[in-house]
């Protein structure tokens, strides 16, 4: 069986198809570059951070992507099921 999320692009892949830099994206999202990049690669982050970065990307690129359109290496990384301690460490 093929994993359907494997077919989805990461935000990094989408961003690289534009002239938007990682710095520009982080600045527009109002988050540190490290957190923005974590979202770009589909890594661990708060769901709120992912939404901010994705909204900034959509605004800068005139796109309309949703979280469900993006490939996440670990989809549970941005759910509310993360413990508060893990959130404080990771994000």
How does this structure look, described?
The protein has 91 residues and is mainly alpha-helical. It has one domain. 48% of the residues lie in helices and 0% in strands. The protein has five helices and no strands. Helix 2 packs across helix 3, helix 2 crosses helix 4 and helix 3 packs across helix 4. The longest helix is centred in the middle third of the chain and has 15 residues. It is globular. The mean pLDDT is 83.
- Please tell me the total number of domains: 1
**Bulk shape:** globular
Radius of gyration (CA) equals: 13 Å
Give, in order, the helices and strands: HHHHH
Distance between the amino and carboxyl termini = 33 Å
Q: Describe the biggest sheet?
A: none
- Give the low-confidence spans: none
Report the total helices: 5
Percent range for β-strand residues = under 5%
Q: What is the helical fraction, as a range of percent?
A: 40-55%
Total DSSP E strands? 0
Mean pLDDT: 83
- Structural class by sheet pairing and helices: mainly alpha
């Amino acid at each position: 069986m093929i994993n359907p999320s494997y077919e989805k692009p990461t935000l990094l892949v989408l961003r690289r198809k534009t002239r938007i830099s990682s710095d520009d994206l982080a600045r527009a999202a109002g988050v540190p570059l490290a957190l923005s990049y974590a979202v770009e690669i589909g890594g661990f982050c708060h769901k709120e951070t992912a939404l901010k970065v994705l909204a900034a990307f959509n605004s800068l690129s005139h796109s309309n992507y949703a979280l469900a359109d993006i490939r996440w290496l670990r989809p549970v990384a941005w759910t509310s099921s993360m413990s508060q301690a893990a959130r404080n460490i990771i994000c």
